[in-house]
Prior knowledge:
Blueprint: E1 8-12, E2 15-21, H1 23-44, H2 50-65, E3 73-80, E4 87-92, E5 98-100, H3 110-120, H4 127-144, E6 154-158, E7 161-165, H5 167-172
Antiparallel strand pairs: 1-2, 2-3, 3-4, 4-5, 6-7
Helix pairs in contact: 3-4
Amino acid sequence: xxxxxxxxxxxxxxxxxxxxxxxxxxxxxxxxxxxxxxxxxxxxxxxxxxxxxxxxxxxxxxxxxxxxxxxxxxxxxxxxxxxxxxxxxxxxxxxxxxxxxxxxxxxxxxxxxxxxxxxxxxxxxxxxxxxxxxxxxxxxxxxxxxxxxxxxxxxxxxxxxxxxxxxxxxxxxx
Length: 174
């Protein structure tokens, strides 16, 4: 297991894809999606919205299910629509079931942090409140999960684009 593998893929300036599943499938499918989303942007001189991106991914995954080589990939698609300014998050599983959700996690860690997110989340959350929830999720993992991951990548998508936060600064905040 690689400790520093980034399982997020930047699809556009305002959309990210996070993947988990079989390592070959995740890398192959995510790079395929990344390439096709970029190709669409070049051909049409505009980016897909997060909703359009999620629906495209769901359609491609559903098509692969009907083939002899389906992908075993679970995904989160997050982004901010440049036109409306609305943020959205979609969860897509390996069976191509898609749902728009207010918060999400995947992988083994999801079993431990969904309770924290469910308790702490509210509709009109600020960035600072979101980072506090991230700290609480990390604390729950440190206490309950048997594997100690030394590093996490925290990425925030806003109307101004995508940026990565330093974990040490977030943990140092009160």
